[in-house]
Amino acid sequence: MTLLALLGLFTALVTFGLSWAVYRVALRFKLYPAIRARDVHTRPTPRLGGVAMFLGVIIAFGAAWQFSSHFPLLNVVFNDPKPVLGILGGALLIVIIGVVDDIVDLDWMTKLAGQFVASGLVAWSGVQILSLPIGGLTVWSPLTSVILTVIVMVLTMNAINFIDGLDGLVVGVALIANCVFLIYTYSITVRTSPLNYFSLASVITAILIGACAGFLPLNWHPAKMFMGDAGALLVGLLMSASAVAVTGQFDPSTLQNVVGRTHLLSAFLPIVLPLAVLIVPFLDFGLAVVRRMNEGRSPFAADRKHLHHRLLDMGHSHFHAVLIFYSWTAVISIGMLLFSFTPIVPDWVAIAFVAVGLLACAVVTLAPLGSRRDARNRTTREARP
Fold first, then answer.
1. Cis before residue 252, ω within 30 degrees of 0?
2. pLDDT by residue (tens digit) across 326-376?
3. Are 212 and 235 in contact (CB under 8 A)?
């Protein structure tokens, strides 16, 4: 874990420096678009944070690769460079598409096509969903694995991109989700393979944590710079790549032996946990698609009805809305993580944590509605003769 922490710290420092440099260049050459009707911010702000994050990721992978010969644990990850090159190639393509979209506003079909190509490149490199714990160990055909992987990655990229509407929202949610996911992948790998506890998934996650942490100071409210579509799609691509990589890393029967033979959820955690940590983005994505299709519009047509917009309309401040997203993400992802530590952590503790946490989040989320009702009642009483 020390080496992963150092890798994340290195990525954070590099990304922070690059973010500041990109910010200064963007200001000097006025590289920022006009404010759109659906935007929350009130002054023109650069959207090139994704470029700085991508460069930080590239430099971090390059440094890890360079030093892999001195660290046998890292050498295991870079022994076959094809998956790493496929991920970085897909990331490069998606960042280019995002930057072009931030500048000239591409149509949704072009962006979606680019996402499919980038995801296909990652799947072609060997990062695929090779098995699922359904009725034992199910091995997919090569074509089915590629198709399923591409669909999962495209859905994740769009889910992350859809919640990118408030300062620090995507970066903070990604930080929480990936920290939990890193703990899970590391703990399970150590218990299943104590002599070789590094994996491609853990390296991707550690680097992504560093990239998000390094960019957060410039993206915190009031943000100096946004990550733009390039950053949001990059985060989604890397998160889905790490999740896909870990699904084929463990045999479900091995997980059951490690976590507990009678604990059925243990076999499904490689699938359930990535979905759990992204439950809020996926919920927003699903609601947006249904809403827009019911209105007869494209499911990718932009509007101002996302969950974060609704929180603001309810009366939450920008800061409170972001913290509410953080809280929902933390409760659900940490709660699912606790199940992976059975029998060390009893199931009832995990269930109680999730139940109490969700109740607290719901109360805080809906609090402005109660305040509005009280205000209306008070106004009504005062208006009576």
1. no
2. 998 899 888 888 887 776 778 889 899 999 999 999 999 888 865 555 444
3. yes
